[in-house]
Amino acid sequence: MEPGYLDITCSPKTKPSMPTLSIISCRMLEDEIVHLLSSDREVEELLLLDGKEIQSLSRKLKSQNRPHIMLAWESLGSYLQKKQSSPGGLLSRLSILPSRAGSLTVVVSLMRLGLHSDLELLRTAVYDEIRRMSAFSDEILIFYGRCGDSLAHIQEDLADLSCPLYFLTDSQGQRIDDCIATALGGNEEYERTLSEHKDVAVFLTPMWASSWKAMREDASPGRGRDLRVMLKGSGLKKVAKIDTALTFENGFDEKVDGFAREFGLEKIDLPGCTRVAEKSYEKAKGSLRRAETARVPQPEKDPLLSLCRMAWKRIAELSGQQKE
Known about the structure:
Elements: E1 20-26, H1 30-38, E2 43-49, H2 55-63, E3 69-71, H3 73-85, H4 87-93, E4 104-111, H5 119-133, E5 139-143, H6 154-157, E6 165-167, H7 179-184, H8 187-196, E7 200-204, H9 206-217, H10 227-234, E8 238-243, H11 252-263, E9 266-271, H12 275-295, H13 303-323
Parallel strand pairs: 1-4, 1-5, 2-3, 2-4, 5-6, 7-8, 8-9
Helix pairs in contact: 1-2
């Protein structure tokens, strides 16, 4: 087994009794995750994979009174197994006592910002995270765009996975180019904005405005780029502030103004939205609900007879599996 991987197989025995949707995301989209999860009452249990990258997300979720549990990779396996061995988990696993209708577990893993400085490193890190999270997930939602085509072929490259993958897509069903296209509402909106504002050097969302320095510092050795030299060489004169209406990061206006002053750029304001994140999340959840509905057998007219039949059927199945 490779270092850092959990000893969990992708079988029903080790998956949580509630359907599990995992989200692998760039930190640049953590505000969108807070927006989605803080108001979603179908999420019965929210697990965050603990680490340096997750601290800001946890703080924002707490500010929205969204309960969650932070677990290290080393603790996640035992936590899921404990949930499975609990009376409720056992009965649910036997299809005798299903979980509350529509409820689900969400597991979130945030990837470090500096990965973008090396697209090969980004691809490797994201692929590895998908593989190890597929061990306990019913579906995985990838909160990344194509990112310079470094992540454009995930489905083909990971076709051996049994866990379905979902992506950020626009209204046309196309994979989103990057986080800026996500904030603007889709690839077409991104292309139109670039066409109408050819003199924009940098687009800033709230997370970009707060994190561009950290992203540069977190870059792989020898991969950090001098932003001042890049901007000067581009000849572009403006910075665009994209207002997505998300206010989890403080001082957005001040940070954009400071960026404009530091690099001698003119600030312009552009409207943004959370539509791409919302629709992509709902699509993944909808698929998970349909799969769960198809899996759970419909009760017979006599509930006691139905209960006994389901119990004996599942006990026989588990007994057969243990003999194998």
